[in-house]
Write a sequence for this structure.
């Protein structure tokens, strides 16, 4: 049983999924940490804080996904990849901002809890999009 489990976790697909989750969690911690600092400590409106935090986390996510998760060490196409990576990220930013507004202003959730839910909803579809970006560029 142990050998079967070991073989499963050594497969390239599983390794990429685990790396993707670790990279995503790292970006999420940056996002949530910055959201808290901007909103709670600096008293910036939660929507604006959410946008700024999302953009900083975008760069953390991009570099972790490119160089670590998908092992794409080439810097030749890095600007092109970043622009392609930003297209779905900007759509996700719009979805995130909309969800934040709905969750906080209409569902009356705390902004940090709302961000956790919004991030979770966005994370799943992003894996497939970003895998394609780093595979084809």
């Amino acid at each position: 049983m142990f050998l079967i489990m070991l073989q499963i976790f050594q497969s390239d697909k599983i390794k990429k999924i685990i790396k993707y989750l670790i990279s995503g969690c790292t970006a999420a911690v940056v996002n949530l940490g910055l959201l808290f600092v901007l909103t709670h400590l600096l008293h910036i409106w939660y929507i604006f804080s959410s946008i700024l935090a999302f953009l900083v986390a975008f760069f953390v996510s991009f570099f972790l996904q490119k160089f670590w998760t998908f092992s794409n060490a080439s810097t030749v196409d890095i600007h092109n990849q970043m622009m392609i990576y930003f297209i779905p990220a900007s759509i996700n930013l719009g979805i995130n901002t909309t969800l934040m507004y709905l969750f906080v202003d209409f569902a009356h959730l705390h902004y940090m809890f709302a961000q956790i839910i919004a991030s979770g909803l966005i994370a799943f579809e992003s894996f497939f999009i970003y895998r394609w970006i780093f595979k084809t560029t």
